[in-house]
Structures are given as structure tokens and as C-alpha cells.
Structure prediction request, 84 residues.
Amino acid sequence: MALVQNGQAVTGTYSCKVETGGRKQGGRERTDVPVTGTLTGNKLSVAVGKQGRLEVTVDGDSMSGSATWEGTTAPASVSATRAK
Prediction:
């Protein structure tokens, strides 16, 4: 995920490759999915395309919280660190 902040507005893109399942068990890939959201204080809330939602707390170069994806029944825990 690559994010850019402009005031409270956050935009960017999300890309991933899942190695198992989908596309005849060869995995699936998402490339340059648009990300839009807001940062209020240390709370970041973003939509990932039309399929996902990320709600995290930012702490310096790290963030952690939960993600929900279309077709899932429960949020997943997520954490990330700023790339250097």
C-alpha cells in the first residue's frame, strides 16, 4: 500500500498477490486498487477499492487495527510499518 497525506485527506493505491486459491488455484493479484480516506488525529480510515475498509491507529511509523473485506464475516487484524 502506498499512501499520500494532504491535510486530513489520504489517497493512494493497494497492490497484492495471494499465492493460494482463486484463478484456478494459482492465486490472484490486485494491482493499483485506489485507496481513499481520512486521518483524524491518529485514526486512519480508508476504503480500499469497493471491496475493503481499513480502520487503524497510527503511531509514528507504524499503524495497527482491523480490515474488513467483501465476502468475509469478521474483521482481520492488520499492522504495517512505513517502508524506508
Notes: The first strand starts at residue 2 and ends at 6.
